[in-house]
Design goal:
mainly alpha
Length: about 260
């Protein structure tokens, strides 16, 4: 009897820990909720870690192709470019929110999100290339190196994720997202912006470095959760959904690195 009680206590603790671990990302939390409601899928038809990473590669290819086309179609008017970038970013944001609410449609919505983000990045890259030809390549290289290091660190479990750390990442990510959203509304609606985000002084650079750190944390958490969720016997379309979540963090990291190098 004592052994059975101990097993029940351990199982309850594991469930609570799992809930804490998946709280940082609303998309992942949604996936877990759906997973609990679904019946187990046959092994051959279930989402896998390998399948999710193949989807990440596919989405990266979509981003690069979309960015390359957008790069070639750059408008000659800088103000037009800014509005185009912001419009594409807003469309990508709305697509991302809808994808979080409808994971079953992620096989279509995730490539759409990647296309919109790629088009926005292409316009930004063209502007950066005209002003500083090495900036784009440097941003891509730094982002790639950081992503590889994150995968190595979390694959070997060199860094233990504490629930309190996850909570801090959640709050920080939400605060930064709200700040960027407010900045987007001010730019599109009132031709104003939040000075802290665009400031090239020490305050703006400090905020940028903090945002880079939070983006790195999100990327690492997403990687860990992809590995865990792929063992839940979820339907195959969750490979696209998990790849979408990883891409959101990866693109955010690239944007922050690019912004930092630009400053």
């Amino acid at each position: 009897m004592n052994e059975e009680k101990q097993e029940m206590i351990v199982n309850d603790e594991n469930k609570e820990t799992e809930k804490e671990e998946n709280r940082h990302n609303p998309a992942i939390r949604k996936a877990m909720e759906l997973a609990e409601q679904m019946e187990a899928v046959e092994e051959g038809a279930a989402a896998t870690t390998r399948g999710a990473f193949y989807k990440i590669i596919a989405l990266l290819a979509v981003v690069f192709v979309s960015a390359a086309i957008s790069f070639q179609l750059l408008s000659a008017v800088p103000s037009t470019v800014l509005k185009t970038v912001l419009g594409l970013a807003l469309a990508a944001f709305c697509t991302g929110i809808y994808t979080c609410r409808h994971p079953e449609k992620s096989s279509v919505l995730a490539p759409l999100y990647a296309t919109l983000e790629g088009a926005a990045l292409g316009q930004m890259a063209a502007l950066d290339w005209a002003a500083r030809s090495g900036l784009v390549l440097q941003s891509l290289l730094v982002t790639f190196i950081i992503a590889v290091l994150i995968i190595i660190v979390f694959s070997h479990k060199w860094f233990k994720l504490h629930p309190a750390f996850r909570s801090v990442v959640v709050l920080s990510t939400a605060a930064i997202a709200l700040l960027y959203l407010a900045d987007l509304v001010l730019i599109l609606g009132f031709d104003m912006n939040i000075i802290l985000i665009h400031d090239a002084g020490w305050k703006g650079i400090a905020f940028n470095l903090f945002a880079i750190f939070v983006a790195i944390c999100n990327l690492g958490l997403d990687y860990v959760e992809i590995r865990k969720l792929s063992k839940k016997n979820l339907p195959a379309y969750f490979e696209w959904f998990l790849a979408f979540g990883f891409m959101v963090s990866l693109i955010w990291l690239y944007l922050e690195i690019s912004r930092f190098l630009r400053k």
